[in-house]
């Protein structure tokens, strides 16, 4: 399903029974009520972002999720992990109520202390046990059916093994705060300290970086794109770059990355995401921006409609014929070879020919 702006959304539907005594409907109502109080981007993104959601829930929110596992994770088109399943969520300050206890099918994810009805030492202990279950399920690519399987660590990466063993400790006192988990796994040389995670983290914070930091990051981004999954590049990195252009006027700094990402898009996606961005940049007075655009004309022109070329691109491009910079003039002339087929009669046979004649007379 799509919203009015074309953005895709998921709609979760709970069908009530005609008797009006559907316990699932009651659970759905609790979910809606709880979600209205949880305003956080990672509540209903990679596993590191998932931990940020738990850190927010346990520490700032003062809540316990109770059913953290693969079933409570929704993965977006961009690869973000969203925490859902908040129907059992309860305040850490009050004992769990019947409504906050997992349904029987999810009992396998309950921490050891739940079987003895004893309270966890720390407010995050229950959810950290669940996070350990999620880690096991993620790397074993299967659903946990027996709690004893958590002892099998053959598929848990070495870089996360120590943390995993703390998460599934039978002693609730030994399970770390989610903030500490993040700190441990993101420090230099740790499991989450890699190009992909660092790049996505920087992108989240790009709006608060100064121009020097942003320019250095964006100039190095192009070389990294080939090592990232295509869906991350298309649905996570590209929207951020476009936002940088539309909101923060990033201009020339994002062009190289935009054109690189453009090679991954089909024509419809290119028309939707790349063309509107680059067309507006043709009006830029910055020579670096204009030169980069002119150099990309061979690949750009096949995606730009005839109407857009004549009404939005050519009126700005034509100024390059009289630019004082010889390189700009040269690439403007070369661009006509690729745009000629889309130029209307007046632009091609009047405007362009007049400029060609003038340039030729200057050479003579």
Automatic annotation (TrEMBL):
**Signal peptide residue numbers:** none
Which SUPFAM superfamilies did the record assign? ARM repeat (SSF48371), Protein kinase-like (PK-like) (SSF56112)
Per the database record, which ranges form the Protein kinase domain?
Answer: 1-192
InterPro entries from the entry? ARM-like (IPR011989), ARM-type_fold (IPR016024), CIK-Related_Protein (IPR051177), Kinase-like_dom_sf (IPR011009), Prot_kinase_dom (IPR000719)
Give the superkingdom in one word: Eukaryota
GO molecular-function terms, A-Z = ATP binding; protein kinase activity
The record's similarity note reads:
Belongs to the protein kinase superfamily.
Protein function: Regulates COPI-mediated retrograde protein traffic at the interface between the Golgi apparatus and the endoplasmic reticulum. Involved in the maintenance of the Golgi apparatus morphology.
What is this protein's record name? N-terminal kinase-like protein
What organism does this protein naturally occur in? Petrolisthes cinctipes
């Amino acid at each position: 399903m799509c919203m009015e702006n074309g953005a895709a959304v998921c709609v979760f539907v709970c069908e009530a029974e005609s008797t009006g005594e559907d316990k699932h409907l009651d659970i759905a109502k609790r979910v809606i009520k709880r979600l209205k109080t949880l305003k956080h981007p990672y509540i209903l993104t990679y596993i590191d972002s998932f931990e940020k959601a738990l850190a927010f829930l346990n520490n700032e929110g003062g809540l316990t999720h109770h059913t953290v596992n693969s079933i409570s994770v929704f993965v977006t088109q961009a690869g973000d992990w969203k925490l859902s399943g908040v129907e059992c969520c309860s305040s850490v300050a009050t004992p769990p109520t019947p409504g906050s206890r997992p349904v029987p099918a999810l009992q396998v994810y309950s921490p050891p202390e739940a079987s003895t009805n004893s309270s966890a030492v720390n407010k995050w202990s229950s959810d950290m046990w669940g996070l350990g279950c999620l880690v096991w399920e993620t790397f074993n690519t299967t659903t946990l059916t027996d709690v004893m399987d958590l002892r099998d660590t053959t598929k848990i990466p070495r870089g996360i093994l120590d943390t995993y063993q703390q998460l599934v400790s039978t002693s609730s006192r030994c399970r770390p705060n989610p903030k500490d988990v993040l700190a441990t796994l993101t420090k230099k040389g740790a499991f989450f300290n890699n190009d992909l995670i660092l790049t996505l983290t920087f992108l989240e914070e790009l709006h608060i970086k100064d121009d020097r930091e942003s320019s250095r990051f964006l100039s190095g981004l192009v070389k990294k794109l080939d090592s990232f999954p295509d869906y991350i590049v298309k649905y996570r990195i590209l929207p951020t770059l476009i936002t940088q252009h539309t909101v923060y006027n990033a201009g020339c700094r994002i062009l190289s990355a935009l054109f690189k990402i453009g090679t991954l898009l089909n024509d419809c996606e290119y028309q939707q995401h790349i063309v509107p961005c680059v067309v507006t940049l043709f009006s830029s007075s910055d020579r670096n921006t204009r030169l980069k655009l002119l150099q990309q004309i061979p690949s750009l022109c096949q995606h730009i409609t005839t109407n857009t070329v004549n009404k939005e691109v050519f009126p700005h491009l034509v100024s390059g014929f009289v630019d004082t910079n010889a390189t700009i003039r040269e690439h403007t002339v070369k661009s006509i070879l690729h745009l000629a087929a889309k130029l209307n009669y007046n632009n091609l046979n009047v405007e362009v020919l007049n400029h060609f004649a003038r340039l030729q007379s200057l050479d003579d």
